[in-house]
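Backbones bend. To wit:
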Amino acid sequence: MRRALLAGNWKMHLNIAEAVDLARGVVEAAAGCSDRDVMIAPPFTALSAVAQALQGSQVFLGAQNVAWEAKGAFTGEIAPPMLKDIGVRMAIIGHSERRHIFGEDDAMINRRLRAALEFGLTPVLCLGETLEEREGGKTMAVLEAQLRSGLQDVPTGQAEQTVLAYEPVWAIGTGKTATTEQAQEAHAFLRGLLASFYDKNLAETVRILYGGSVKPDNVDALMAQADIDGALVGGAALKIDSFKRIVRFQ
């Protein structure tokens, strides 16, 4: 049985004081939810302070990205050991905003993912198609290409530690959400790919999250799908009332 994972991606929002207040609210929201995991990914400036707020709780600290080298002349990047040093346990990799705004390609995303695994961070690999690709009937081809390249040279023992997040680009921050049938279809397809790339046991172990305008009023239906193991939440993770309802999905 795969444990649900509810993750909040705070993106470029919140100063340190605001982040700490929200983190404390998430700790309270997650209390008593022993059958699921909760992760929050604040901006880099707030990671250390939020780490303190999460001490003694069951909430995991995540980062919104991670570099592919342990140190060096990489201005603007954050190395895996630096994140580990302040208590980060998970890292979001390949988010559509990184792919489409900042031009990160599949090869770079693969390097980030392998570095995260090497240094003991759990990568959350984001995958998803644009509206043009979906309307062109290319969704599954895009997902296969992204997953294949993302997991290139990743052995079974590390692949089973990876979390996937299906995020249709056209549903991120738009208020549009894939139907439960569309989301389930994509998740089942990804799980089938994992079985073909590795084996069925690994495919049944890896958690696949849905991301793309997840809200309190649709989380229950999404989480009821057989292959949806959690949610990667953007805007609704910035308000404790909405994220609390998502964390406590039925």
